[in-house]
Amino acid sequence: MKDAALEYIKWFAQPEIQQRWTDMGGASAMRSVVEAPDFPDKKPYNRAFLESMSIVKDFWAEPSYASLLQAMQDRVHKYVVAGQGTAKEALDGLVRDWTEIFEDEGKL
Q: Domain tally for the chain?
């Protein structure tokens, strides 16, 4: 299964596949695709996509991103899906979780 996933990623990351993906309405961040002269006007939203991507901050660069995301998913799931507690309780719990994660990482 892992090999199949890697093969898919290799296939999908090819410039010609990324170009086709974008032509069909997908969003590619591949430079050769988004820096093509015709890209901004090819779809109605491409210009806005380029403007947005120019200010995006890469949240994956945060080493504790996965732990922060898991804590949020857990709190949101318990409130929204399982109907446990209130929105305030969920968010207050998330603040506690994130504080603990940042303390463990030596960031607080």
A: 2
